[in-house]
Design goal:
- The complex is a heterodimer of chains A (about 290) and B (about 350).
- Chain A contains 12 helices and 2 strands.
- Chain A has about 290 residues and is mainly alpha-helical.
- Chain A has a single domain, classed as MetI-like (MetI-like fold).
- A two-stranded antiparallel ribbon of chain A has the order 1-2.
- Chain A is flat.
- In chain B, the strands form 2 sheets. In chain B, strands 1, 2, 3, 4, 7, 8, 9, 10, 11, 12, 13 and 14 form a 12-stranded mixed sheet that branches. In chain B, strands 5-6 form a two-stranded antiparallel ribbon.
- The longest helix of chain B is centred in the first third of the chain and has 22 residues.
- Chain B is globular and about 60 Å long.
- The N and C termini of chain B lie far apart (about 75 Å).
- At the A-B interface, helix 3, helix 5 and helix 11 of A face helix 3, strand 9, helix 8 and helix 14 of B.
- Chain B: It is found in: Periplasm.
- Chain B: GO terms for molecular function: polyamine binding.
Chain lengths: ~290, ~350
């Protein structure tokens, strides 16, 4: 006679069944394409088409080409600046919504924060290009006020502004989600124990809200470093970024192996960023 | 029979009927440039043959080759491709021969027959359908044409205005080569350092390097005064609203681009595909293609003029084509090694 299935075994099977769709999704839409891309990065494009060369030549070409390295450096610099700026702008905004605003206005404030997401990403970038243009909206205002005009269009500054506008709103949501969960009693208790506002922020609020900040910062980093549209439209071709280099390989050279190698390098940068930030993404132990 | 089983049976039957109906509807799959997507060009053909044309837009021959490599044989019927890349795609076995006796060679502009590109081993694989010039567009309200007569000023210390550069390496390298006194079909590896030096100075003077839309937007909004690598394809469609936009061919000359159309070697319906090519090359098809909403340019078939208004022909400078054709050369058609070197130069130009 077969022994009855243990409760533990049944729970394990049930957990596996529940997780199966997510695992299947990850396998089909991430692991498998990633594997194909990794393999492809070891191939070579020749006059005869794609050749399974099994070589690291594409990676060597990246390391030996100053233009490719410059593109990677440009991407990293833009991404770091955008991430830092977005956190710096989003934190106070999230604080105001979560703490300072009366609860009845929070929903409206959050709705306003997500308004930028309602428009197409491409349209938003083109809109910024018109705002920042030499004869655009911004310079129109500055001219009316008798102030010197700015030469922001088609520059790294324009790319950073376009990115920061988008990611500040994204970060505001993740930071807000962390801040709104903090019990107000914690701040009151710290104040009762003699802590000043700066100390309360530094020793109570900041550590507890840090996971939300870091999750948002990581999302910003990952989305920003892999973005092609904004540098293409707002950068004016003056600051070649790594995703643009990937597109050059595909659109001009039909060199999928080199594009795959560059994409792997891009993913390595994102993975490295994750490893650096992961320790702060966890919620603090109770 | 249980209700569920009946439902499944009905569903299966409906699916089979839908698939059969879809299979019966004729469809043509064309890999094209954006100027082929206007209803004015496609609908008359669909109505005539009672079928649907599926259009897939692409930019750059590299992108087309990637798409074709990822497709199954027989997926595609018609290919629109850069005229200079026809030998490359024929060598890859992508295009099949065309029935030349059915195509309007008699009325093509002679310079657009381009046998050296379209005829390989005695067989014709493609035919020109549209052409234009990569030269210099400018805002005549700000810039005098005299300032642009010598294109080398654009990469000197005395650039006459704010400059955008069209982001496509072949025509721009061809233009710079013309500026340096070279012929586009004679560019060698030894010429690249001088071309690169001029390009880098041009980049220093330029405020923008952009593709079609970005270039058009920049000159249309006054962001720049000059578009190096531009031409009638930038200005012709905008002249009604922006009459100050103009273009010229500098004294050193300029480069000419052309696009060709052909039928896939493994098309499952080559006869219908040839009919589509004939439609695009017909005077009406050519007039629609020439004034496409994506970009305007000269039709290869000179008979299209009868189907176009005077204003349209003026915008394309129909009557000056003989002069322009004489002053321009096809843009470079490098072999694989030179092409790779040119792209490396362009990557460094973009990264500067």
């Amino acid at each position: 006679m077969r022994p009855p299935p243990s409760i533990e075994g049944r729970d394990r099977r049930r957990a596996l069944a529940l997780a199966a769709p997510a695992l299947l999704w990850t396998l089909v839409f991430f692991a498998l394409p990633f594997g194909v891309m990794a393999v492809l990065s070891l191939w070579q494009r020749t006059d005869q088409g794609l050749q399974a060369a099994w070589t690291l030549a594409n990676y060597a070409q990246f390391l030996n080409s100053p233009a490719y390295l410059q593109a990677a450096l440009n991407s990293l610099e833009i991404t770091v600046v955008v991430t830092v700026l977005s956190v710096a702008l989003a934190y106070p905004l999230a604080w105001i919504i979560a703490v300072e605003l009366p609860p009845r206005f929070r929903r409206l404030a959050l709705a306003l924060a997500v308004v930028p997401f309602w428009t197409s990403y491409v349209v938003r970038s083109y809109a910024w290009s018109l705002v920042l243009a030499k004869r655009g909206v911004l310079n129109g205002w500055l001219g009316d006020l008798g102030l010197p005009l700015l030469d922001l269009a088609n520059s790294r500054a324009a790319t950073v502004i376009g990115f920061t506008h988008f990611f500040t709103m994204l970060l505001t949501l993740t930071i807000y989600a962390s801040l709104v969960q903090l019990p107000p009693n914690l701040r009151r208790a710290a104040a009762d124990l003699g802590a000043g506002p700066l100390q309360i922020f530094r020793f109570v609020v900041w550590p507890l809200a840090l996971p939300g900040v870091m999750v948002g910062a990581f999302l910003t980093f990952a989305l920003c470093i892999g973005d092609y549209v904004t540098p293409q439209i707002l950068g004016g071709g003056n600051d070649l970024a790594l995703p643009q280099l990937v597109m050059l390989q595909i659109g001009r050279r039909a060199d999928l192996p080199m594009a795959a190698a560059l994409s792997i390098i891009l993913m390595a940068a994102v993975t490295l960023a994750y490893l650096c930030m992961a320790r702060w993404m966890k919620a603090p132990a109770p | 029979m249980k209700t569920t089983t009946r439902l499944l049976a009905v569903l299966a039957g409906t699916t089979l009927l839908t698939q059969a109906a879809a299979a019966q509807e004729k469809q043509l799959n064309a890999l094209v440039w954006c100027d082929h997507t206007d209803e004015a060009l496609i609908k008359p053909f669909e109505d005539k043959f009672g079928m649907k044309v599926n259009l897939k837009e692409y930019e750059g021959t590299g992108a087309a080759l990637s798409l074709i490599e990822q497709s199954q044989p027989g997926d595609w019927d018609v290919l629109v491709v850069d005229g200079i890349d026809v030998p490359r795609v024929v060598e890859a076995g992508i295009l099949g021969p065309l029935p030349t006796d059915q195509l309007p060679y008699d009325s093509l502009f002679p310079e657009l027959v381009m046998e050296e590109n379209h005829v390989i081993d005695g067989k014709t694989y493609a035919i020109s359908e549209k052409f234009g010039y990569n030269t210099v567009s400018y805002n005549s309200a700000v810039i005098s044409p005299d300032d642009l007569a010598d294109m080398t000023r654009l990469w000197s210390d005395k650039a006459p205005g704010s400059i955008a550069v069209y982001d496509y390496y072949l025509p721009v390298i061809g233009m710079v080569a013309k500026g340096l006194g070279l012929h586009t079909d004679e560019i060698t590896m030894e010429d690249l350092p001088a071309i690169e030096e001029a390009l880098m100075k041009l980049k220093d003077n330029a405020s923008l390097v952009g593709e079609v839309v970005a270039s058009q937007t920049a000159i249309a909004t006054g962001e720049v005064d000059i578009l190096f690598g531009g031409g009638e394809w930038v200005t012709a469609g905008l002249t009604a609203d922006l009459p100050d936009l103009d273009w010229l061919i500098p004294e050193q000359g300029a480069v000419r681009w052309s696009q060709s159309i052909g039928v896939f070697a493994d098309s499952k319906q080559p006869d219908l595909a040839v009919e589509f090519v004939k439609h695009v090359l017909s005077p009406a098809g050519q007039a629609a293609l020439a004034t496409s909403s994506c970009y305007w340019a000269m039709p290869a078939n000179s008979m299209a003029g009868a189907m176009m208004t005077d204003a349209q022909k003026d915008a394309l400078r129909w009557d000056q084509q003989t002069d322009y054709l004489n002053k321009t050369e096809l843009y470079p058609a490098p072999d694989a090694e030179l092409d790779a070197a040119m792209q490396d130069v362009w990557t460094r130009f973009l990264a500067r």
